[in-house]
Design brief:
Keywords: Signal. This protein is mainly α. It has a domain at about 5-45. It is built from 4 helices and no strands. It starts with a helix and ends in a 7-residue tail after the last helix.
């Protein structure tokens, strides 16, 4: 998990970095990036996501550091 914070700052840099991550061969890096996008949505629009439901917690058990 120590690599997550530098990754987060990389994502703030520019779209080229995001494209690099998305096209990366590293599957785990792409998964973490997708989760980061999902949690940005959850934090931005909490009324649109039922975060207390059991289904939500089963599908997305991981939460990035913010």
């Amino acid at each position: 998990m120590n690599w997550f914070i530098p990754l987060f700052y990389l994502l703030l840099c520019n779209w080229d970095t995001e494209a690099y991550i998305w096209k990366s061969e590293n599957k785990q890096l792409r998964i973490e990036y997708c989760r980061l996008i999902w949690w940005k949505f959850v934090n931005t629009c909490p009324s649109r996501v039922n975060t207390g439901s059991e289904e939500f917690l089963k599908k997305i058990p991981w939460r990035p550091m913010t």
